[in-house]
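Hello,

Our lab assistant flagged a job as stuck in the queue for most of the afternoon. It eventually completed. Since we weren't sure the result was trustworthy after the delay, we are filing this so someone can double-check. Below is the sequence as submitted and the structure that was eventually returned. Let us know if re-running is recommended.
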Amino acid sequence: MLNQRLSQKLQQKLSPQQIQLMKLLQIPTANLEQRIEEELEANPALEEGDVIDNVLDDLNNEMKDEKEDREESNEERDSLDDFGIADYFDEDGEFPDYKTNDYSYDGNAEENKTIPISVGITFHEFLLNQLGIKSLSGDDYVIGSQIIGSIDDDGYLRRELINIIDDLAFSQNVVATEEKVEEILMLVQEFDPPGIGARDLQECLLIQLKAKHPNPLIKTAIDLIENQFEHFAKKHYTKLESALNLESEDLKSVIEEILKLNPKPGSSYTGGNNAKIHQYIIPDFTLKNENGELELLLNMRNAPDLKVSSSFKEMYKGYKESKEKNSDTKNAIIFIKQKMDAAKWFIDAIKQRQQTMMLTMRAILDYQEEFFLTGDEMNLKPMILKDIAELTSLDISTVSRVANSKYVQTEFGTILLKFFFSESMQTTDGDEVSTREIKAILQEIIKAEDKKKPYSDQKLMELLKEKGYEIARRTVAKYREQLNISVARLRKEL
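-- returned structure --
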């Protein structure tokens, strides 16, 4: 029997230009320069050039008019799919240049400063240098090098000794016993900074304490860490006083001595010139408060001026004017046109990126204006991606891409855009408040509590209820964890 079935599907496909724009929107300013360099290498028709035309000089002023913003954004989005070779000519038949960084501002000297790159030896090189001055045999040095290579950036050796022995046998052709590896490990644990090579926190603290000049206080601290570490970790102070036969004040002095130790010794290494690689945040936006007037600027310092290559312009013009129209000429024209189209698409995608980012950020600015004027988290309004999408007539996914990994520099610090998005909750009065406001109040309550008797989550829930925020105990625990605040037992102090 022959069965026939009719089905209808609705599919939406993005053009290559739209996909390119979406990818560019996700890139923060810090990585934009690298992406442009990649495109410059891949497309010979695209090149850096001098700024000639001021096609977008008044864009910042135009962005103040919301309706014009939406119209311009839609027009730009539609135009990405309609490029033809005629777009490269003006009225005189010449090719225009394209300027892409009309949002940058050169008047601020801070923008032109470069971040110096510090030079020095790495953390592991520092340890290997210490190993090199020890009088070790060839195999012992190899074992020491293997141990150092297994130490993580925090300074801990989290790899089992048996696994290190296997690595030595298979990769270094060195047969070692567990006793020998343990012996070399003890040697490495004598290196600077103190605590290096520990296998857990307890051993790390013991190494640092034993490296100190011995006195009654240090001896008691060693005894505490060696024999009462579990009680110490759980802050069972009463049990510690009983086990060590100490008064409260004496125990407090011992614990204060322990708290001076570094739980992550690897992080203390700076290598003289700070050899560790630091991640510097480059803000995508800069917000200035000029006597109550907020001025928003897009940072384009990492985006060079781009234009369609003049040599490709001449080549195309020459081939078009050529009387000989053979297959090679036609193929050359097609190739040149494709590269020039790709160059123009990329330039316009950069321009569209700028417009979309400014449109989105200005909507966030208008929505959270009170916060940007005061810097007070209590003035943050509940705001979700949909709110900004409705204000800008952009898709929620587009707003999400703009907010992802983007920063704005304000007079209150450099802030991640995702910070401004939060859910809402109703107070007992029926008012909607941001969950960030509740977290800020929760943090204040915990900060002001008696550290000898810290509040439980149940008590915190009751205190929030008194202030008009009726939330469940589980929600209190969730917010506390999000703020990286420990439970009451671990917040207790002597």
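-- support follow-up --
The delay was a queue issue, not a problem with the job. The result is valid. The chain has three domains: 16-102+284-415, 123-268, 424-491. The CA atoms of residues 165 and 176 lie 6 Å apart.
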